[in-house]
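This week, think about what follows.
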Amino acid sequence: MKALIIDDERLARSALRRLLKAHKDVDVVGEAAGPDEALRAIRKYLPEVIFLDVEMPGSSGFELLEKLEDVPEVIFTTAYDEYAVRAFEINALDYLVKPVTAERLASALDRAQKALGSTSASTAPTPTACTAAHQIFVRDKDRCWIVRLSDIVLMESEGNYTRLHFGANAPLVYRSLSAIEERLNPSSFFRANRAQIINLRCIQSVGSEIEGRLLVNLTSGKQVEISRRQAKRLRELLSF
């Protein structure tokens, strides 16, 4: 797996790199000492997992994640265990308190391998799969999440913003529905109408046709109307 180390402390980066040398399946593609450098490195190297310091000069690890179009698997590293609960609440892969031990690192890497294996298995081989995002960082007031796109049931446009529905949550994302749609895998997500995109894997049933439109029932209990124009495409996709 390709890994990137993000930490403003040079000694901490060196110590982690030394520990990672014992794991032959890990390729450390680079290091970054701050958020701006990290952002450039992530876009350049496309790491599968990042070791991310929570507190850095001028920004935090959480703020860095908010700037990413597609979020790699995240293993937080910090000297302060006060961030542990928050890190796991947002669905981070793991949380390592410095100084990092070989045992805890091995455990975190095992989680990473399982997560990456799960992501690969659930990704359909489409022509756009290489550019499609697989998870995003979402912040809504004081709450934040790392959300796998496969867990999102429904996306709804609210002006220049988009409301995401996953689990019992429905936070508002500061991106337009069209901007998000550009990074979605078309084999998994379907534009139901001008204001809504549904996860095809979350369709529970398709109701009767009304004036050329279809009513789709989602696993979340929500019902979405498919426009006349899109109803034909959905029939072809679902073969009915």
About this structure: Confidence is low (pLDDT under 50) at residues 121-131. The radius of gyration is 20 Å. The first strand starts at residue 2 and ends at 6. Helices lie at 10-20, 35-45, 61-66, 84-89, 102-122, 177-181, 228-238.
